[in-house]
């Protein structure tokens, strides 16, 4: 067995860019909100301005336009909500709801035997859905996907929900940062450990699908 077949999940998935980018506009909102005497319009404007600059930077460095547009749309939507409701904590409402939806989606994917961790890794490795033909990989991806459900999404929903309910705007901004890349890195490491623990010693690894019918 080579080291290549047992490369870490972090090496396969790579990059922290998306998680970091997701925490910058919320931080800008909190800073702008505080600096302008808890002014929601100023906070919203700061978040959108930072998101635009960040998007332009990513595009200039060859980033995908679709990812930039989606990120910017999320910030604009959050800004519109908070301006409409007049409650600063509502800037984080979309983030809370998106984590609820993501947690439910990941859990459902495991139940129907299409664990999303397998879907993501399969796409990254160019396997598409071939990994589902290997019952060992299917079981391993299912177990590891539960780590994402509980360690990432359930934890975020619990923290964001409690802080949003109590109106802790600054704490929400801090939580958004702490529960972005640091939590993603922890989740990737933990799910990778579970994933490889579920593979027998003689299994060739994620890049090789066993029990695949010959074409």
From TrEMBL:
InterPro entries: UCP010219
Organism: Amycolatopsis xylanica
The name this protein goes by in its record: Intracellular septation protein A
Chain segments annotated as transmembrane: 40-60, 67-84, 104-125, 146-166, 178-196
Domain of life: Bacteria
Keyword Ribosomal protein among UniProt keywords: no
Key words of the record: Membrane, Transmembrane, Transmembrane helix
């Amino acid at each position: 067995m080579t080291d290549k077949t047992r490369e870490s999940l972090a090496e396969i998935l790579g990059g922290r860019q998306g998680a970091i980018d997701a925490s910058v506009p919320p931080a800008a909102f909190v800073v702008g909100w505080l600096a302008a005497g808890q002014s929601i319009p100023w906070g919203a404007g700061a978040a959108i301005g930072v998101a635009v600059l960040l998007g332009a930077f990513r595009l200039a460095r060859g980033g995908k336009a679709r990812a930039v547009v989606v990120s910017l749309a999320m910030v604009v939507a959050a800004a519109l909500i908070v301006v409409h409701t007049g409650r600063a904590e509502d800037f984080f409402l979309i983030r809370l709801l998106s984590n609820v939806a993501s947690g439910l989606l990941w859990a459902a994917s495991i139940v129907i035997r299409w664990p999303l961790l397998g879907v993501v890794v399969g796409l990254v490795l160019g396997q598409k859905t071939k990994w589902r033909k290997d019952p060992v990989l299917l079981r391993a991806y299912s177990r590891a996907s539960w780590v994402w459900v509980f360690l990432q999404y359930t934890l975020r929903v619990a923290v964001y929900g409690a802080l949003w309910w109590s109106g802790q705007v600054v704490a929400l901004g801090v939580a958004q940062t702490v529960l972005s890349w640091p939590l993603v890195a922890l989740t990737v490491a933990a799910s990778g450990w579970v994933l490889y623990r579920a593979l027998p010693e003689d299994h060739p690894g994620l890049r090789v699908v066993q029990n695949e019918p010959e074409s």
